[in-house]
Amino acid sequence: MGKTKVLVKINPEGKYVVEIARHINIALCTPNTRVALYNDSYKLHKILPSKVDPLVSLMKVEKVPDSTYEMVGGLDQQVKEVKEVIELPVKHPEIFESLGISQPKGVLLYGPPGTGKTLLARAVAHHTDCTFIRVSGSELVQKYIGEGSRMVRELFVMAREHAPSIIFMDEIDSIGSQRIEGEHGDSEVQRTMMELLNQLDGFESTQNIKV
User: Fold this and answer.
1) Is the pTM of this model over 0.70?
2) Are 130 and 164 a contacting pair, CB within 8 Å?
3) Terminal-residue alpha carbon distance, the chain
4) Residue 82 and residue 76: Cα distance in Å, rounded?
5) Tens of pLDDT along 114-149?
6) Residues near 41 by Cβ (< 8 Å), separated by ≥ 6?
7) Which of 12, 21, 102, 180 could join 45 in a cystine, given CB atoms 3.0 to 4.6 angstroms apart?
């Protein structure tokens, strides 16, 4: 719309072409950005932060764990693979660009309780200088339809804003059930899992986000 006007959507009125105040950087006015308008002239005068559910914002780990790879015993092969899949793309993305190959999206750690899955994830967060987001799969199982999918979308929005970032999803089996036909109580859980897969393999780039 040029350097002085943008198209905004105002609920429930509709879409308007409005002017931008002089102190606003037009480069920050990207699609889906929340903005504030003057009530009388509808001039854009402030860019608001992204709307994130408080439950999602609490998933961000402020203090990086002090666990190291040396604390993980008997998993030398798994530690090596996690370094190649998670740590290497975050620290040296130019290696993948020079080879012309896409970066891995993430890694699945499975096994009985007490085998070092969570400890290995904490060690990865310690050795990689990036944002660590921890979420339990049971937190994404919500009572109302669409709530779990919305939380997954906002989770990846927050991860993109703080990229590079690592999302550690514990108890993923609570939403990673087998697909079934018909309308059941598990259909909402399947929607949540489909939204997670869509965020990983969708149109928006998740190159700086590892799961």
Assistant:
1) no
2) yes
3) 37
4) 10
5) 888 888 888 888 888 777 888 877 777 766 677 778
6) 19
7) 21
Structure-token pair, residue 71? 């604390």
CA distance linking residue 206 with residue 163, whole number of Å: 9
- As given in the structure block, the two tokens for residue 114 are 């007490």
Q: Read out DSSP for 126-149?
A: HHS-SEEEEEEGGGG--SSTTHHH
CA angle 108, 101, 160 (to 5 degrees): 60
**Which tokens sit at 120?**
């290995």
CATH for 54-210 (3.90.650.10, 3.40.309.10, 2.40.30.20, 3.40.50.300): 3.40.50.300
Q: How far is 103 from 89, CA to CA, in rounded Å?
A: 6
Q: Supply the pLDDT for residue 26.
A: 78
DSSP 20-81: B-TTS-GGG--TT--EEE-TTT--EEEEPPPP--HHHHTTEESSPP---GGG--S-HHHHHH
Residues of the chain with CATH 3.40.50.300: 54-210
d(CA 73, CA 115): 9
